[in-house]
Amino acid sequence: MIFYLLRRIVYTVPIMLGVAFFCFLLVHISPGDPLVAILPPDASVELQRQLMTLYGFDRSWPEQFFGWLWRALQGDLGTSIATGRPVADEVFRAVGNTLMLACLATLIGFLLGSLFGFVAGYFSNSWVDRAASALSVLGVSVPHYWLGMVMVIVFSAWLGWLPPTGAGPGGSDQWAWDWAHIQYMVLPAVTMSVIPMGIIARTVRALVADILAQEFVVGLKAKGMTDSGIFLHVVKNAAPTALAVMGLQLGYLLGGSILIETVFSWPGTGFLLNSAIFQRDLPLLQGTILVLAMFFVLLNLLVDTLQTAIDPRIQR
Amino acid sequence: MTTLNAGAAPAPVYERSAGFWSGVLKKLARDPVAIGAAAVLLALVLIALFAPLITPHDPYQTSLLKRLRPIGFENFLLGTDELGRDLLSRLMLGARLSLFMGIVPVLIAFVLGSAIGILAGYAGGLANTLIMRTIDVLYAFPSVLLAIALSGALGAGIGNALLSLTIVFIPPIARVAESVTTQVRGRDFVEAARASGAGAFTIVRVHVLGNVLGPIFVYATSLIAVSMILASGLSFLGLGVRPPEPEWGLMLNTLRTAIYTQPWVAALPGVMIFITSISFNLLSDSLRSAMDVKN
């Protein structure tokens, strides 16, 4: 177990280096001068050169990469070209908002998905199973940005129950855990939860059907165990895999929240990426992607570790 | 003397041995879900192909007087968009770019990803490690994030969006190709071919390809729905197709301002994306269970 963990961590290091290198490359594959966005068209050559030196674009590639990596390790992700503020500050403020939304969405998706998956697996090949399967296909097929628009149409424009966009009254970024703020979270979180719901429902259905078909369940029944007792056994057997899938889904939501955040004007990393792309603010783009990708890599590591720790069937 | 009529001559009928693929097709033909999904997709492809001939109005004709009309207004069956263009005509013509942008990246990634994966799987050893660890780096990004990072850095446009999506789909396909190839490589018939002096190229062409392309293909079809949603998503963000070309994701984006005035018109392009991705998902699911020999 410890040995496996060490190997897994050692294996993650080159992946993280590769991810960092890819993020570094992003600035260099983009066409045109990265400074074009802030330079006035009539900027003097002198000013241009000064800015090149300031952002380090005049040095060689390896020099730039290792310099950038070294600073990134110390928490310095550079300076946003558009706002002039440190990228790290902007990213970490936004990551909190995205994390909040993604966690809530994963939780909703996990609860509903497990419920549907359990029911479908218990009554496999019945109409309940078919309905639950249909629902999970719908969940993985729906363009979530469109679903977000439909949610706004129905619950904001039509029924007037919930606010359509933003993250608090008056567009303030002072978050608080009261209904005045939480109501802004409901629509984006529910919209976002549809994908993990579909995937978790599928996984749990397959797991439960598989477990119920195993001989030990027949044995327990023969010994006279009640249905609720057997249910506990099924939960215990299905939990590690289902939890692992949930962890991975959280990672996908963190990285994929940009479309939902754009629809709901949620001030998270997606929103930040959007403005970075359209203002051609490459350091901000690079920093945001780096942080999100690292989150994803570490989350994968964590999920693997926890799964190995709680599931005695996995021998590594 | 009887005249020989070529048409009437009784051709020798050989019962073709029921091969694997004809079995799969037979199973698919008996699956109502697969038939339904295939019919919807066929209809969409036909609409896309013949769009210029069948659109009731000019999809680019704007009209300031007839902006955002409701469904069924005069002879605009599905209303008009924010510039007064006929929505039905634009949805029809939009099928072209939307389907193209959804399917082509998966096709290219299927070819390149299979090649990379088969090469790595067959070569094994150090080459395998080098190739697959590089693939793992790209695989370490959530797909939406990778697509947006690449097209955000490259800039908007159809070509850049296609390139980004292709890069997104190569790693998962290469991984599947590598693992299937590694399994096939250890089988006895490959061993036998090698013992009888066949070269690496011949073994891959004759013995490996036929056994691995099927599973890789099924996996690739399951990615088309994802690709449809992602491609339209890029256009929705303003990173893919540029106006005034009709594309469902872009149309959804420009109609966002109309969700209070004409909500049902505004939601229509998304319905098209939804229908397409559901059909691809259902067809892919059916294909997978038809190919599952255990059933």
Write a concise keyword list for the protein shown above.
heterodimer; A: 316 residues; mainly alpha; MetI-like fold; 12 helices; globular; B: 295 residues; 0% strand; elongated; disordered N terminus
Largest sheet of chain A: none
CATH architecture of the largest domain in chain A: Orthogonal Bundle
CATH superfamily descriptor of chain B: MetI-like
User: What letter string, H or E per element, gives the SSE order of chain A?
Assistant: HHHHHHHHHHHH
| Helix segment tally of chain A | 12
Strand content of chain A: under 5%
Estimate what percentage of residues of chain B fall within beta strands: under 5%
CATH topology of chain B: MetI-like fold
Q: Please state the average pLDDT score of chain B.
A: 84
CATH superfamily of the largest domain in chain A: MetI-like
Fraction of helical residues of chain A: over 70%
- Overall strand count of chain A: 0
Radius of gyration of chain A: 24 Å
Largest sheet of chain B: none
Compute the separation of the termini of chain A in Å. Answer: 6 Å
Rounded to the nearest angstrom, the radius of gyration of chain B is 24 Å
- Going by helix content, strand content and strand pairing, the class of chain B is mainly alpha
Subcellular location (chain A): Cell membrane
Protein name (chain A): ABC transporter permease
Family (chain A): Belongs to the binding-protein-dependent transport system permease family.
Keywords (chain A): Cell membrane, Membrane, Transmembrane, Transmembrane helix, Transport
Question: What would you say this structure looks like, in words?
Answer:
The complex is a heterodimer of chains A (316) and B (295). Chain A has 316 residues and is mainly α. Chain A has 2 domains: 2-73, no CATH class; 93-278, Orthogonal Bundle (MetI-like fold), CATH 1.10.3720.10. Chain A contains 12 helices and no strands. In chain A, α4 (87-122) runs antiparallel to α5 (127-141), α4 packs antiparallel against α9 and α11 runs antiparallel to α12 (282-310). Chain B has one domain (18-291): MetI-like (MetI-like fold, Orthogonal Bundle). Chain B has helices at 20-29, 32-54, 87-123, 125-139, 143-154, 158-185, 188-195, 200-236, 248-254, 263-291. Chain B starts with 19 loop residues before the first helix and ends with a helix. Residues 1-17 of chain B have low confidence and may be disordered. The interface between A and B is large, with 50 and 44 residues.
